[in-house]
Structure formats: structure tokens, C-alpha cells
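User: My instructor asked us to take a sequence, write out its structure as C-alpha cells, and then describe one feature of it. I'm not sure where to start. Here is the sequence I was given:
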Amino acid sequence: MKKILIPIGIILLIGIFVYTKAVGVYNTFVQTEETINGSWAEVETQYQRRADLIPNLVNTVKGYADFEQETLTGVIEARAKATSISLQADDLTPENIERFQEAQDQLSGSLSRLLVAVERYPDLKANQNFLELQAQLEGTENRIAVARRNFNQSVQGYNANLRTFPNNVFAGWYGFETKGYFEAAAGSENAPTVEF
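Assistant: Let's start with the prediction itself. The C-alpha cells for your sequence are:
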């Protein structure tokens, strides 16, 4: 009788260990996934803040009749494209993040061209509304950078936890997958050329 109880006890202990480990790993994945979701919401909030500032900036610039219409149209079109791409927190694959980032990078490029074009209009550069909007836009760009960094840090912790043994076994059971990162835009490693 004692010979049967020992193997049963060992099996029960192993079963309890595996169960508690599986539950603990699952709960950890859920918690870190929620951290990622919160970080993603912050990224979206900052991009939305930028998108909300752009119409005011464009309208201020439109007041200068001789301003390049093509530049304004480019900004408006890029904003429309960037705001049309919606990415849910549960679908943060590397491909989807890249698609989202491409649209945002296109908007950033259009805004940069707008701000460079403004340099040729001294009256516009001195306009108080324009200066305030430009300062808000610069602050928003900094907030976007911080939100993206925080998001990437959340994803890094989640992915590292997901890929370590034995968590990777449990992750496969539960269907958890790695998340994508924000990456630098192509060509951003090259410093811009400034000519006077």
C-alpha cells in the first residue's frame, strides 16, 4: 500500500507545481499585456493630439494667401491617411505597427516640409497663433517620442518573458504571441542637411 502512495504523492506534487506555475505564468502574461495596451493607448493619444493640432496650424497658415498650396494639401492628405489607420491593442503585430508607423512618418515628413516652407514668410513666423501652435506641436512630438519609448519598453519586457523557458511552453498553450516594436523610420540614421 505504501509503495502505491509514494508515486501518487509525487505525481500530485508535480501536478500541483505545474498547475501553479501555469496559472502564475498566465497571470503574468495578462498583466504585462495590459501594460502594453495602456502604453499603446498613450501612443494613440499623443498621435491624436498631433492630428487635432494640425487643422489649427493649417488654418493659421492658410491666412497667408501666397503660401504654397501644395504644401498645405500634402499635410492635409497625410493627416487624413494617418488618422484613417486604426490599430487595436490586441493586434500589435510587427507588420501592423510598421503600417501604422509609415502613415505617421508620412505625416511627420509633411509637417517638416510645412515648417521649412514657413521660414520664407517672416510675417507668418511672427504670428502669435502660429508660434503657439508650433510650440504645442513640438511638445506633442516630444510626448510621442516618450510614449513610443514607454511602449517599446513594455513590449521588450513582455517579449523577453514570453520567450524564456518554461514560459514559452505555457505561452504556446495560452496563445500568447510576441508583440511588435516601433522602429526608426528608414533614413533617420542620416542627419538632415541644413543649407543657408
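For the description part of your assignment, you could build on this observation: Residues 163 and 178 are 8 Å apart (CA to CA). Try explaining in your own words what that tells you about the chain.
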